[in-house]
């Protein structure tokens, strides 16, 4: 196994193919919502500025995002673990 393959985790061609597919899917989602890369960067920047300016309110909002995401991710994780459980 070459150092490049070890670093990438797979052969360079397969990694390139995976990156192309994921980039295509993310591009479709971003186009659907009308987002641009600048919007994403601006949102990240705005979050940290709000965190600095608003202090605990921004932390509360951040934890709200985590809880909102966890409401979907945790049950999905549990269902996937149950579905893949082997006796």
Please give the structural blueprint.
Layout: H1 3-8, H2 12-33, H3 37-54, H4 56-83
Helix pairs in contact: 3-4
Point out poorly predicted stretches: none
Rg over C-alpha atoms, rounded to the nearest angstrom: 19 Å
Question: How far do the termini sit from each other?
Answer: 35 Å
The H-and-E topology, N to C, reads as HHHH
**Main β sheet profile:** none
What can you tell me about this protein's structure?
The protein has 87 residues and is mainly α. It folds into two domains: 1-35; 36-87, no CATH class. It has four helices and no strands.
A few lines on this structure:
This protein is mainly alpha-helical and 87 residues long.
Task: Provide tags for this entry.
mainly alpha, 2 domains, 4 helices, extended
């Amino acid at each position: 196994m070459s150092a490049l393959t070890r670093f990438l985790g797979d052969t360079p061609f397969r990694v390139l193919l995976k990156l192309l597919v994921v980039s295509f899917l993310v591009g479709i989602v971003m186009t659907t919502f009308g987002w641009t890369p600048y919007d994403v960067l601006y949102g990240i920047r705005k979050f940290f500025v709000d965190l600095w300016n608003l202090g605990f309110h921004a932390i509360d909002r951040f934890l709200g995002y985590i809880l909102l995401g966890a409401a979907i991710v945790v049950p999905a994780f549990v269902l996937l673990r149950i579905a893949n459980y082997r006796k």
